Amino acid sequence: MKQERIYLHSFTDKVYLDLFICDDSASYSHHKRPFMLVCPGGGYGALSAREAEPIARRYMGYGFNTAVLYYTINNRAGKVGLEGYKMFDRDSDALDEENGFPMPLIEVAKSISIIREHAEEWNTDPEQIAVIGFSAGAHLAGMSGILWDKKGLHKRIGSENNRPNALLLIYPVVSGVDRPHKGSFINLLDQDSPSQELLIEYSLEKQVTETTPPTFLFHTFADMAVPCENSLMLARALREHNVPCELHLLPELNHGIALAEGEVWPEAHPYNARWTDWSIQWLKTVFKIFKD
Question: What are the chain's domains?
Answer without folding.
Answer: 2-287 (3.40.50.1820)
